[in-house]
Amino acid sequence: MLNWIWAALIGLAVLCGAVTGRMPKVASAAVSGASEAVELLLSIGGMMLLWNGLMEVGEKAGLVRIFSKAVYPLLKFLFPDAYRDRKAMDAVSMNMAANFLGLGNAATPLGIRAVGELKRLGGGKAEATRSMSMFILINTASIQFLPTTVAALRAAQGSKSPFEILPAVWLTSILALAVGITAAKLFEKLSGRCGRSRRYRPM
Amino acid sequence: MPCVLVLFLGAGLWKRQPVFDQFLCGAKGGLRVVAQLAPTLVGLLTAVAMFKASGAVDLLTGLLRPALELVGVPAEMTPLLVLRPVTGSGSIAILSNILQNCGPDSMVGRMASVVLASTETTFYTVAVYFGAAGVKKTGYTVPAALCADAAGFLGACFFVRLLFS
Predict the structure, then answer these.
(1) B101 touches chain A (CB under 8 A)
(2) If contacts are CB pairs under 8 Å, which of residues 155-194 in chain A contact chain B?
(3) How distant, in Å, are the alpha carbons of A104, A139, A192, B25, B126 from that of B120?
(4) What total number of domains does chain A contain?
(5) Pseudo-torsion of CA B140, B146, B152, B154, nearest 10°?
(6) Which ipTM score applies to this complex?
């Protein structure tokens, strides 16, 4: 899927660039995009190391365990085939906490750690498991309690009450997550059926 | 964040743990992740930069606008729909544009704010998480996440109309 999307982005860019005569711009964007990526990597790299190191300390001190126990019922519901694994659930619950508080910088390294743990749990294969898909859906639905960036933008443009959108944000996030989970379950069933029929088909 | 730092270190010292050694051990793991992330980021951000520079956004916006207006998404928000799953900084730029032109307390301004706060940069998230973990077959994660994004857009327009009319 990512292969197609990536190729489509570049293909569309070159096609549109050729039609609208913006080819030189597209070419220079390719160069600047690549160097932007390395700049971004350097700027998030520090946070990555910092949070991975801190997680290790928090885990060994038993603090993370206390937190992940508190959200245990929720984890059991969301990750039925992974909630028994303590290390994976520690990382998952820390990522959810960081997202919830709007700490985007901390959420990414913690999330990468969580996906790594879930991969280990799935036998280390290069294939997405159910728990991984669920975890990424939770992250893309962006469940936040305080959307600080958006509120700051609204305040900067002179909004009378930057936070008045909060109830709508919560409702929309929950709706998006519910639709995402339903879609995932549906696709899972469909792909399961296709896989089975393919296996039974004589060559 | 400083509170978390003090809490973690305090608890570690209380239990007589070698906190600095543990930190170094964990951070080393982070370094491996950073190295694994580099190819993903370069590939993705290059494609996104080319996409934005080519004017493809305007083209897609023009194509999508009539269909979106039918389901209650205002025309000003169409570029946000095209760019939201692809680039975080790009969609923030569009949001501040909308807030400036239409006002932060207008209907469209509120809708765009809700969209930005309740969706994520889907492709970036999927590529970064799976790329760093070395997962190649993403299965149904991307289509499901895009369904969630679409629901986020429609939901934002619907709930803002419901709560502010």
Answers:
(1) no
(2) 156-162, 164-165, 167-173, 175-181, 183-184, 187-188, 191
(3) 11, 7, 28, 31, 10
(4) 1
(5) -120
(6) 0.82
Residue given tokens 């857009």 in the structure block:
B153
Place of tokens 């906190």: B19
Name which of B4, B126, B148 is nearest A177 (Cβ-Cβ): B148
What is the pTM (predicted TM-score) of this model? 0.83
Cα four-point dihedral sign B14, B15, B20, B26: negative
By C-alpha distance, which of A87, A57, A45, A78 is closest to B128? A45
pLDDT by residue, tens only, chain B of 165 residues = 677 788 888 888 888 888 899 899 888 888 888 888 888 889 988 999 999 899 888 888 888 888 888 888 888 888 898 889 888 888 888 999 999 999 999 999 999 999 998 888 899 889 989 988 888 888 888 999 999 999 999 999 999 999 987
Write the single-letter amino acid at A45.
G
Assess if residue A84 is contained within a domain: yes
Is residue A138 assigned to a domain? yes
Domains of chain B by residue range: 20-164
